[in-house]
């Protein structure tokens, strides 16, 4: 859990520095630029999720050769996709900017930010494979140290480049790029220590078509999810720079809470995956029951904290009075989103652990369609409030659409013990 909640600190640190030294346009540029990169990178989130499922199953079955092969293929695939994104970043960036409805000042900032951040693409995607391996093996201590290194170095470099050297938005991007490459180097070193034979293994010669087929559903699920997040941000941009900046601040709290709650889902992924490999159905049931109780309790605590301490937390991220006031207005809805989100995370963890990606794809696609329909009806009538109502429906619909599959998925687990 500690390792997982370190992930959104990258965005929070960037937001806090620009929030105190920039204006609402710069803050909006961080918001849209970060979401565009999330859209780009997490479309390939199967490198993390798929690797976790396969590594956990291989570990549970004590299949060392299979385990090494899964890691090798994931690293190679991450490096290859990252290089392609780096080579194609100019047309991709132009396409992304053309789809945004933000002001010229925000778009110029997004251009500067992404043009620098994209140089970390291979490192980012290879790190997904490293993280997936560590989660699948249950090596969360190494996971924690890796995230602390990434975020600590990122914060230090942000302060150096953006505050001390006064490079502003570009300095924020430069610091993040350097931090991500350093984190990959550390991750590969720790992975080499955990799996000594990985470095000496021959290049993977497995069936790449089969590998991509396994991950295809995870690709579409993540794409649908990010389309929803991107739509939310862009819908806020259409309402004005102030709404965009305010929504972005609240999304930082949601992101922090989401990664916190997703820590329980990671446990589900790893433990269920290992139970699948070992054929231990009783272990699967025990893990789901215990993590769900903890996740619901934590979601209530996080939502309560956000609602009660929200104004103080907003002031930590920005000194702009108008942004503070606007963000505080929608705090209750952000807290409700956090409260309802834990169900979707838990059910996602079950699906990933059982390597059942098709239900995740279908549920997220259904939720996206409902979100777009709700936004089209509510936002013109109620403004930003209607947008938040539609956004809450998005996360609730994901869980409701997955719920009918939960028992059928668990029943498919073979039991050998």
UniProtKB/TrEMBL annotation:
It comes from the Bacteria. The chain crosses the membrane at residues 25-44, 74-96, 116-137, 144-165, 171-191, 212-233, 245-267, 287-310, 330-351, 363-380, 386-405. It is found in: Membrane. It holds the Pfam family MatE. Keywords: Membrane, Transmembrane, Transmembrane helix. It is a multi-pass membrane protein. NCBIfam families: matE (TIGR00797). PANTHER family: PROTEIN DETOXIFICATION 44, CHLOROPLASTIC, PROTEIN DETOXIFICATION 44, CHLOROPLASTIC-RELATED. Belongs to the multi antimicrobial extrusion (MATE) (TC 2.A.66.1) family. This is MATE family efflux transporter. The lineage of its organism: Bacteria, Pseudomonadati, Pseudomonadota, Gammaproteobacteria, Oceanospirillales.
């Amino acid at each position: 859990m500690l390792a997982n909640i370190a992930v959104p600190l990258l965005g929070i640190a960037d937001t806090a520095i620009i929030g105190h030294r920039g204006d609402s346009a710069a803050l909006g540029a961080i918001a849209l630029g970060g979401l565009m990169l999330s859209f780009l990178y997490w479309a390939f989130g199967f490198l993390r999720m798929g690797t976790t499922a396969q590594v956990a199953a291989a570990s549970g079955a004590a299949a060392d050769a299979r385990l090494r092969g899964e890691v090798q293929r994931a690293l190679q695939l991450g490096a290859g996709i990252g290089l392609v994104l780096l080579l194609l970043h100019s047309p991709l960036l132009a396409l992304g900017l053309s789809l945004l409805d933000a002001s010229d000042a925000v778009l110029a900032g997004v251009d500067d930010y992404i043009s620098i951040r994209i140089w970390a693409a291979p490192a980012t995607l290879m790190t997904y494979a490293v993280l997936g391996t560590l989660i699948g093996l249950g090596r969360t201590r190494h996971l924690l140290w890796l995230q602390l290194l990434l975020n600590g170095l990122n914060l230090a470099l942000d302060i150096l480049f953006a505050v001390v050297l006064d490079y502003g938005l570009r300095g924020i991007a430069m610091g993040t790029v350097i931090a991500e490459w350093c984190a990959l180097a550390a991750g590969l070193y720790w992975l080499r220590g955990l799996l000594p034979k990985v470095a000496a293994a021959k290049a993977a010669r497995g069936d790449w078509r089969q590998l991509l087929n396994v991950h295809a559903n995870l690709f579409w699920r993540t794409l649908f999810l990010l389309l929803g997040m991107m739509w939310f941000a862009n819908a806020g941009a259409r309402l004005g720079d102030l709404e965009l900046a305010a929504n972005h601040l609240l999304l930082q709290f949601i992101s922090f809470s989401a990664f916190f709650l997703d820590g329980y889902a990671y446990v589900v992924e790893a433990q269920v995956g290992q139970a699948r490999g070992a054929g231990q159905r009783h272990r699967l049931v025990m893990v789901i029951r215990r993590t769900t109780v903890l996740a619901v309790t934590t979601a209530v605590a996080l939502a309560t904290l956000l609602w009660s301490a929200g104004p103080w937390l907003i002031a930590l991220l920005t000194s702009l009075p108008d942004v503070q006031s606007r963000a505080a207005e929608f705090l209750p809805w952000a807290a409700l989103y956090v409260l309802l989100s834990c169900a979707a995370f838990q059910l996602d963890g079950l699906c990933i652990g059982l390597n059942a990606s098709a239900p995740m794809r279908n549920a997220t696609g259904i939720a996206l369609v409902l979100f777009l329909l709700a936004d089209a009806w509510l936002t013109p009538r109620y403004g930003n409030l209607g947008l938040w109502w539609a956004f809450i429906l998005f996360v609730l619909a994901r869980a409701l659409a997955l719920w009918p599959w939960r028992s059928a998925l668990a029943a498919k687990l073979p039991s050998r013990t």
